[in-house]
Amino acid sequence: MTTQKHNDTDRSAVMIRIEELVPQARFSLRVRSERARVLSESLGLALPVRIGSVERKGEVEALCLGPDEWCVLAPDKRRDALIEASRAAYAKIPHAFCDVSDREVVLRLSGPEALTALTTGIARDIESMEVGSAARTAFDTATVILWRDDENSFRMDVWRSFLPHVRALLDLAQAEFAAGL
Fold first, then answer.
1. Which runs of consecutive H residues, i.e. helices, occur in the chain?
2. pLDDT tens for residues 42-74?
3. Domain termination residue (choose one: 49, 78, 99)
4. How far apart are CA 24 and CA 75, in angstroms?
5. Judgement on whether residues 42 and 109 belong to the same structural domain of the protein
6. Are 117 and 16 in contact (CB under 8 A)?
7. Which structural domain range is residue 10 located in?
8. To which H or E segment does residue 96 belong?
């Protein structure tokens, strides 16, 4: 869904690769759960009902963060269409659909030690996360959304203000793996 913005390491035997991904449209959606199905039709994407589950349709993803809260992601080219669909549905289905695209930076962590590196800052059992799921959690003291895209590939949505702190911890873990510690 997202593409690489730049690669921070080019070594061939990387134990963990940390990449900042290209920004995309990001929305915070709040709607009563009993109205979510109708809003799904307006947005053209099934909103998942189980917390932590992700639904995809084409290039658009929706993550259920709570009983009445979703994170919706799409390429920038889809931003206006999603805003208009939300606006058109509002008279029938009151909801909040807020563009929060500038709030977060997305990091991709991949490689054989990506999971181990994440455990340096996340107390939850990441290994039990299913591929294709996501969860709001804390990395050290920063609230993040962690997406498990593959066995050894994760995306982490980090608020811009917390990025230097989170990145410093991840860079430290990456250096320790490179040094064989």
1. 36-43, 79-89, 114-118, 163-178
2. 899 999 999 999 999 999 999 999 999 999 999
3. 99
4. 5
5. no
6. yes
7. 4-22+103-178
8. strand 96-99
Domains identified in the chain, total number: 2
**pLDDT digits over 90-133, tens only?**
989 999 999 999 999 999 999 999 999 999 899 999 999 999 99
| CA-based max dimension of the chain | 59
By the 8 A CB rule, do 30 and 69 touch? yes
pTM of the model: 0.86
**Residue where the block lists tokens 């996501």:** 134
Residue carrying structure tokens 């003291």: 141
Angle at 110 between CA 125 and CA 18, to 5 degrees: 110
Of the candidates 72, 99, 126, which is a domain's last residue?
99
Rounded to 5°, the CA angle 166-62-27 comes to 65
Identity of the amino acid at 101: S
